[in-house]
Amino acid sequence: QTWDTELEALAQSYAEKCIWDHNKERGRRGENLFAMAPTLELEFAMEDWNGEEKFYNLTTSTCVPGQMCGHYTQVVWSSTHQIGCGAHFCEKIDGIETDNMHLLVCNYYPPGNMKGKKPYVEGPSCTNCPTGTVCVNNLCVRVSLRPDLPSNSTPSSLLPAGALDTEELETDQTSVDPPKAGAPSTCLGFSLFLLPSAILLGLLL
Description:
By secondary structure, this protein is of the alpha+beta class. Helices cover 13% and strands 27% of the residues. It folds into 2 domains: 2-121 and 161-204, CATH 3.40.33.10; 124-160, no CATH class. InterPro entries: Allrgn_V5/Tpx1_CS, CAP_dom, CAP_sf, CRISP-related, V5_allergen-like. It comes from Copsychus sechellarum. This is PI16 inhibitor.
């Protein structure tokens, strides 16, 4: 994934509104929200989202009932190639009773959590990389994004799996089906963690 300044600006402007709900005007972009106090630790946010992997079943493409996993699936969605995040300290976040929290918003394009799709193809790392990419740390990386790669690096000549080709939503994300329990593409959930030095929340729609 590459950092995108337009997605960053969108995320930042929405974070500054201090609303604990998804941006209804984000269009065809994925979104993860995270709130934490007294400080914002980005590494903790990423670990929290990635930690949802244990609640995701790749075979059935569903969450464990009563758990969230859509933050995780968005983060690892193979056809998402741009990300931008913004954060803001909010004295009051509309929708959260706790005061003085940091709100983190990350937007993704193309969006993940596409209904009926899986985030990636199960199998050995880098065996299905698109043409023009190389394997770096078990991930497919575009050669154009890695000018530091040695000239003898061999780009992959394999085509991506058809099921995971970039495919835009047929409708705006604001008009997808209502939430259904257990489906990572439509999970609605809140999680509140009380830690000795921090309060953090995660929201997924």
